[in-house]
Write a structure and sequence with these properties.
- With about 475 residues, the chain is of the alpha/beta class.
- The protein has 3 domains: about 180 residues, P-loop containing nucleotide triphosphate hydrolases (Rossmann fold, 3-Layer(aba) Sandwich); about 70 residues, Orthogonal Bundle (Helicase, Ruva Protein, domain 3), CATH 1.10.8.60; about 210 residues, Peptidase M41 (Methane Monooxygenase Hydroxylase, Chain G, domain 1, Up-down Bundle).
- About 50% of the residues lie in helices and about 10% in strands.
- The strands form 2 sheets. A 6-stranded mixed sheet has the order 1-3-4-5-2-6. A 4-stranded antiparallel sheet has the order 9-7-8-10.
- Helix 12 packs antiparallel against helix 13, helix 12 crosses helix 16 and helix 13 crosses helix 16.
- It is globular and about 80 Å long.
- The C terminus is likely disordered.
Length: about 475
């Protein structure tokens, strides 16, 4: 029971090398340096460099942290121990600390070697957050891990690689130099990284000659490596189901729809509901297109997917690492377009529950504008405690609410002012374009799906469209706002 449950490979054969890891070039470079250190340490020790004790991989789920660990095991050619943080945890007192000692004893006997601990937050959580005191078995396990990594025994030739997607809850003693000397961020890939990842995951698939991986990469911002692998697999399954010999753009298009919005539902036959949904979706598309700063419309459809009865798809431009106030406000206007269309066209008493998801989304965006981004009349303040914003329940419970009642009231007023202003603009767009809306509704009810180019061609007959959106001719859908 006290023995470590780590899986040990004297000559690791994970089947993964650095060639199989794409889209995280900076992280890969750090690891290549460690592999070189393990293969020829004298090159570094001759000038006084010491071998790093630990490397912490930090990043969202699905970005390739465990894959990187497999690659370094395959490349380094040294003994490799792999386990999960939860494998230290046991109901019996002292077992976790004993397993840590056993693991490092085995590792020292085989040094130089690598130890990989996946999901280290299971055992490395901040100490002292337990309520009521007493002996905390997890804390004793962490204390033993801290001692083994940089205690009194000195250098041991053991490199610890750990992975987590929750670095904010890790104990500060674990993150100091001498324990985890390096924190390597493995983030979501950029457009070039996504193309490299798609090349890796499509190497064993038969693609039609018209499928461009660079186009798919441009149309999938926010997708992680795992998302892209799933996308190509879903496309291959669809092609097989449809009896095709190769994966075409149609399968990839449908796969993105399925991943983002859910499975396609049964087409609507009810005349009244279908008309209501049509006006709602055209309202989104009109308000988004006529508001400066919004992403262009990719398509409008009345075919249900997931929980949505209809969808309006938008095409994000560049990877949105920095978003302006104008762009955020435009998203609020576009999000309110559906409700605005219902109210202007059918009357206030006939508005439906279809806008519930939109209202939640735009309220959250407006709240972030005020409390996080400092984009309101209150001024450039960060008005929310980071602990309150974090996903950790314990930190939220312990966070002290230092906000005055007056400030809380001002925040509510600012949020309401932003949403009210956006709603008035959305209703104005609907009132000013009734003729165009009626023409678009007739075509949408007939075809059930309108492409962005078809939508803009009809709308441009009645009103001027911002120049940037007129030139958009893209083929694949992306992030959805319904």
């Amino acid at each position: 029971m006290n023995r470590s449950k780590a899986k040990f490979q004297m000559e690791p054969n994970t089947g993964v090398t650095f060639d199989d890891v794409a889209g995280v070039d900076e992280a890969k470079q750090d690891f290549q340096e460690i592999v070189e250190f393990l293969k020829s340490p004298e090159k570094f020790t001759a000038i006084g460099a010491r071998i790093p004790k630990g490397v912490l991989l930090v990043g969202p789920p699905g970005t390739g942290k465990t894959l990187l660990a497999k690659a370094i095991a395959g490349e380094a050619g040294v003994p490799f121990f792999s386990l999960s943080g939860s494998e230290f945890i046991e109901i019996f007192v002292g077992v976790g600390a004993s397993r840590v000692r056993d693991l490092f004893n085995k590792a020292k006997q085989n040094s130089p070697c690598l130890v990989f601990i996946d999901e280290i937050d299971a055992v490395g959580r901040q100490r002292g957050t337990g309520i009521g005191g007493g002996n905390d078995e997890r804390e004793q396990t962490l204390n033993q891990l801290l001692t083994e990594m940089d205690g009194f025994s000195g250098d041991s030739g053991v490199i610890v690689i750990a992975a987590t997607n929750r670095p904010e809850i890790l104990d500060s003693a674990l993150l100091r130099p001498g324990r985890f000397d390096r924190q390597v961020s493995v983030g979501l890939p950029d457009v070039r990284g996504r193309e490299e990842i798609l090349k890796v995951h499509s190497s064993n698939k038969k693609l039609d000659k018209n499928v461009s991986l660079s186009v798919i990469a441009m149309r999938t911002p926010g997708f992680s490596g795992a998302d892209l692998a799933n996308l190509m697999n879903e496309a291959a399954i669809l092609a097989g189901r449809r009896g095709k010999q190769k994966i075409t753009l149609k399968e990839i298009d449908d796969s993105i729809d399925r991943i983002v919005a859910g499975l396609e539902g049964t087409k609507m036959t009810d005349g009244k509901n279908k008309i209501l949904v049509a006006y709602h979706e055209i309202g989104h598309a009109i308000c988004a297109t006529l508001t400066a700063g919004h992403d262009p419309v990719q398509k409008v459809t009345l075919i249900p997917q997931g929980q949505a009865r209809g969808l309006t798809w938008f095409l994000p431009g560049d990877d949105a690492t920095l978003v302006s106030k104008q762009q955020i406000f435009a998203r609020i206007v576009g999000g309110l377009g559906g409700r605005a269309a219902e109210e202007v066209i059918f009357g206030e008493s006939e508005v439906t529950t279809g806008a519930a998801g939109d209202l939640q989304q735009i309220t959250q965006i407006a709240k972030q504008m005020v409390t996080t981004f400092g984009m309101s009349e209150i001024g450039p303040w960060a008005l929310m405690d980071p602990a309150v914003q974090s996903g950790d329940v314990v930190l939220r419970m312990m966070a002290r609410n230092s906000m005055s009642e007056k400030l809380a009231e001002d925040i509510d007023k600012s949020i309401k002012a932003i949403v009210d202003k956006a709603y008035e603009i959305a209703k104005m767009h609907i009132r000013n374009n009734r003729e165009a809306i009626d023409k678009l509704i007739d075509l949408l009810l007939e075809k059930e799906t309108l492409s962005g180019d078809e939508f803009r061609a009809i709308l441009s007959q009645f009103t001027d469209i911002p120049e940037a959106k007129q030139k958009t001719k893209l083929t694949l859908p992306e992030l959805v706002a319904a």
